[in-house]
Specification:
434 Repressor (Amino-terminal Domain), elongated, six-stranded parallel beta sheet, 3 domains, alpha/beta, 16% strand, 13 helices, Rossmann fold, transcription
């Protein structure tokens, strides 16, 4: 008879195994992996060495039950299809992980019902804090997070609530640099394609543009002020509306880069060149902006700055000693000049001897 082969079961790797390998108590292992600062440094070193050697992965759900903290940060964004938001998610996750947190992502597509569903998921998963990057948040949702004492950080001003912080984007600084850049080049006919004006951020960017035109002494032509939707198709459609007008601007500023890229495509389809026929400026400075043809001049709003300030604000409000209700974190913007801006068409015509003799 053939002897049956012995089956060697792989020993279960758990907190008991880590404690035995490190020659410490289970309590010491628990305190170490939960980053309790009072653990002796030599004991903690032995625990982490054992964790690495055994390939142990702590049970985060069990830790959450014991500590009362999920070690989860929620992140609600407007739409995944806009490259700005995946870039923001990547930066946010990196910063969160550095602080020992995982992230839970929700996308609203600018719809109130989806925003409510995202908020419900965050509440059900007992997130420790939520960063709301939808560029427009319903007040009743902020109230719901406040009831559960969940810290919230969001973009754009909103009524102050307990454990809430604001990321205040300095739209005017970057847009003013853009307007001044165009003015120095000689542009006095400048149009603007906004985002959906129901969003505070889109309204703020449009208001900043109008104020900057006024400061530069440039007349506003309302026929060149078009409301878009922050998408490629929206930018294309808006530029087609402008091209149908009798009198055309020489430069266009856009509320975001996706709109600007759509504008570029509309101009290409109509046989125009950028910047020879129209100068163009976007907003956000998504990674793709460097790779359009020609590369897009744009106003940079750093995803890294947004992520670092958002996570910092949430963690600050999780510590009772550091809570600063209604704290505001300023996010700077600045113009990044590439190749979609130049002199207005025919700006040098007066220097042409043949044209002067006519």
């Amino acid at each position: 008879m053939r002897r049956s082969a012995k089956i060697h079961a792989t020993p279960k790797i758990d907190i008991h195994g880590v404690a035995a390998r490190a020659r410490v108590s289970i309590a010491t292992v628990s305190r170490t992996i939960n980053h309790v600062p009072t653990v002796d440094s030599q004991l903690a070193e032995r625990v982490w060495k054992a964790v690495a050697e055994l390939g142990y992965f702590p049970n985060t759900q069990a830790r959450a039950l014991v500590s009362g903290k999920s070690k989860l940060l929620g992140l609600i964004v407007s739409e995944i299809t806009n490259p700005f938001f995946p870039e923001l998610i990547q930066e946010f996750e990196q910063v969160a992980v550095e602080h020992g947190y995982e992230i839970l992502i929700g996308s609203t597509n600018y719809e109130t019902t989806k925003m409510e569903l995202c908020a419900r998921r965050m509440l059900e998963r007992k997130v420790d804090g939520v960063a709301i990057m939808t560029f427009g948040i319903e007040d009743f949702l902020l109230d719901r997070f406040a009831v559960d004492n969940i810290p919230v950080v969001f973009i754009d001003p909103a009524p102050s609530r307990p454990l809430s912080s604001v990321l205040a984007v300095d739209y005017r600084a970057g847009i003013n640099e853009g307007v001044q850049h165009l003015a120095v080049l000689g542009h006095r006919k400048i149009g603007f394609i906004s985002g959906p004006l129901r969003l505070r951020s889109a309204e703020s960017r449009k208001a900043a543009f109008l104020n900057c035109l006024k400061s530069a002494g440039i007349k506003v032509d309302l026929s060149w002020m078009i409301e878009g939707d922050h998408t490629l198709d929206g930018g294309r459609d808006a530029m087609q509306q402008i091209l149908a007008l009798k009198h055309l601007p020489t430069a266009i500023m856009c509320s975001n880069d996706m709109t600007a890229i759509g504008v570029q495509h509309a101009l290409f389809e109509a046989g125009f060149k950028v910047p020879e026929d129209f100068s163009l400026i976007g907003f956000d400075d998504i990674h793709l902006a460097e790779y359009t043809i020609p590369p897009l001049t744009t106003v940079r709003m750093s995803c890294k700055d947004l992520a670092q300030n958002a996570v910092g604000a949430l963690l600050s409000n999780l510590d009772p000693a550091n809570i600063k209700p209604g704290a505001t974190n300023k996010i700077s913007t600045r113009l990044i000049v590439r190749q979609t801006t130049g002199l207005p068409k025919d700006a040098l015509s007066d220097l042409n001897p043949k044209r002067r003799r006519r």
